[in-house]
Design a protein that fits this description.
There is one protein chain. By secondary structure, this protein is mainly alpha-helical. It is built from 25 helices and six strands. The strands form three sheets. A two-stranded antiparallel ribbon has the order 1-2. A two-stranded antiparallel sheet has the order 3-4. The protein has a two-stranded antiparallel ribbon with strand order 5-6. Helix 10 runs antiparallel to helix 17, helix 11 packs across helix 25 and helix 12 crosses helix 25. One of its GO terms (cellular component) is plasma membrane. It is found in: Cell membrane. Pfam families: Na_Ala_symp (PF01235). Its main location: membrane.
Length: 559
């Protein structure tokens, strides 16, 4: 382990020198200016709008919302009907049948002999590398981040409190999309001779589409997804995250100087390198600890503020609901609020992008749909819970006790900044959220900085796995290919922290949205396979329940 780590950072040293020169010489600005026209074109291309009446809706958002709505109706609202099944699966209630198969355990009398169970459980295991909870934590760590902190503030600044309602609706719809893509991720994954799992959209696009007679189209879509995913992992999933973490640390500690970003970037690269070199098992072990901690910390602080403003809760939800259907003047009508809410939620939970299916495909199970139901919890945690709590905190901060229409100054929108009615000062989304927390919990901005760094760190290690799996799909599964990718990834950690390559980050961030196009095409072709797998998994659960009702031993308690 130490040998590989040393080799990695030996290879990284020349890149660190370049990164420092970039910061000191201002080369980053030259590169940024040269690349910006192409980045702007790419972003504009991905966010191409479709005119609907007087509105221009980004086609990618329309695709996500319509697709999610279709899956929600087709699968009979799984976000509601399968919610408790998802909770039971994460808790390990069905781990026995997922590991050994229901037929062997509950249809074979000999297998029910309690004295034989411990040895059976020790000797056999399902394909996969991580548990349901670890897979969920890894995927959540890739989505929960600045979108939940800054993105919500921007959504409210643009669309008012009513945007929160449509964010929640989009999150509930996105649960169905996650269910579909993650079931397919497990169904069509590859298992190496050493038990290593290789999965994600590139595999169900190529293998699944071939299975239904569209092999050539599947290959093209699989390669396209993999290329975009590698680019997204270097930019939006890496450089942008390290940049934001470095900015927060520098601001908190009042650090200045050309080499500050490089130093912070090197420290982040070391920490990230220690984790990602260990593969998905180590990533899962870290995320299953970080995600509950950072999410718990953030939710706890939010609850403190919510209860501190307990008397205003009714007014806050009234503003959210009324604003969703009767927006204040200047917003452009109800459709404008819906667009803002759906767009921010789609960007936050990434349902439809397919990236999370890469993490979920590594789960230990014989039933692909078992991980599909677990995956639908991800948008619920990310958007329905965390984004809603952030929205409430910001709404409480802006309530001024006068007319509801005077709470926000919607006409003061400029770029990604909003101007508070109470202060008249232009601030970023992160700063707005920070001020909202500080107003009730003094100096919480320090804790928020820690949360942002943890969000950034967990996002980077998750996206390193997404990018690596795509890299392997393109260039093979050898150790040399692995090391090349990991060195490049660590290089972008440093560059992201040290430079101000806004155009590169803008370009790469749009690549995350670009993943939607090849992935959603595959989902529209393959969703009947998901229905088959769902029927198979629910059937296995029913067989177990009936066997236990008839007096059979519940094997789970021995595992």
């Amino acid at each position: 382990m130490k040998k590989y780590l040393l080799s990695t950072f030996t290879l990284l040293l020349p890149f660190l020198t370049i990164a420092q020169e970039v910061t000191e010489k201002g080369l980053d600005e030259k590169v940024n200016d040269a690349f910006m026209p192409f980045a702007t074109w790419w972003e504009g291309f991905i966010l191409t709008t479709v005119p609907i009446g007087e509105y221009h809706i980004p086609f990618v958002v329309l695709l996500l919302v319509l697709g999610a709505s279709f899956f929600t109706i087709y699968f009979k609202f799984p976000s509601i009907t399968k919610f408790w099944t998802a909770i039971s699966t994460v808790r390990g209630k069905y781990v026995d049948i997922e590991k050994h198969g229901v037929d062997k355990l509950y249809k074979n009398d000999e297998a029910l002999a309690v004295e034989d169970i411990p040895n059976t459980i020790r000797d056999e295991s399902a394909h996969g590398e991580v548990s349901h909870f670890q897979a969920l934590a890894t995927a959540v760590s890739g989505t929960v981040g600045l979108g939940n902190i800054a993105g919500v503030a921007v959504a409210i600044g643009l669309g008012g409190p009513g945007a929160t309602f449509w964010m929640i609706v989009c999150g509930l719809l996105g649960m169905s999309t996650k269910f579909v893509e993650c079931t397919l991720g497990v169904k069509y994954r590859d298992i190496g001779v050493d038990g290593t799992v290789y999965g994600g959209p590139m595999y169900y696009l190529s293998k699944g589409m071939k299975e239904i007679g569209f092999g050539n189209l599947g290959k093209v879509l699989g390669v396209l997804f993999a290329v975009l995913c590698v680019g997204a992992s270097f930019g939006g999933g890496n450089a942008f995250q390290s940049n934001q973490a470095a900015v927060q640390i520098s601001t908190l500690l009042n650090l200045e100087g050309g080499s500050t970003g490089v130093v912070i970037g090197i420290l982040l690269a070391i920490l990230v390198g220690i984790v990602i070199i260990g593969g998905i098992k180590r990533i899962a072990k870290i995320t299953e600890k970080i995600v509950p901690f950072m999410a718990g910390l953030y939710i706890l602080a939010s609850l403190v503020i919510i209860f501190a403003n307990f008397s205003d809760i009714g007014m806050a939800f009234s503003l959210i609901i009324d604003g969703a259907f009767s927006p204040m003047a200047g917003l452009g009508g109800v459709v404008g609020v819906i667009i803002v809410g759906f767009q921010r939620a789609a960007f936050s939970n990434e349902a439809g992008a397919g990236s999370a299916a890469i993490a979920h495909s590594a789960v230990r199970t014989k039933y692909p749909a078992s991980e599909g139901v677990v995956a639908l919890l991800e948008p619920f945690i990310d958007t329905v819970v965390i984004c809603t709590m952030t929205a409430l905190v910001i709404i409480f901060f802006n309530i001024n006790g006068t007319e509801p229409q005077a709470i926000f100054d919607y006409t003061a929108q400029h770029g990604s900044s909003v101007i508070l009615k109470s202060t008249g000062l232009p601030i970023s989304g992160v700063d707005l959220t920070s001020l909202a927390f500080d107003s009730v919990i003094p100096h919480f901005s320090y804790v928020l900085t820690i949360a942002i760094v943890l969000f950034a760190f967990s996002t980077m290690i998750s996206w390193s796995y997404y990018g690596l799996q795509s890299w392997k799909y393109l260039f093979g599964k050898g150790k040399r290919a692995d090391m090349v990718y990991k060195v490049l990834f660590l290089f972008f950690v440093v560059v992201g922290a040290a430079a101000t390559l806004d155009a590169v980050i803008k370009f790469s961030d749009a690549m995350i949205l670009a993943l939607v196009f090849p992935n959603m095409i595959g989902l529209f072709f393959l969703f009947p396979k998901v229905k088959q797998e769902m029927k198979r998994y629910l059937g296995a659960i029913m067989i177990k329940k009936e066997a236990i009702q008839e007096g059979a031993e519940d094997i789970t308690k021995h595992m």
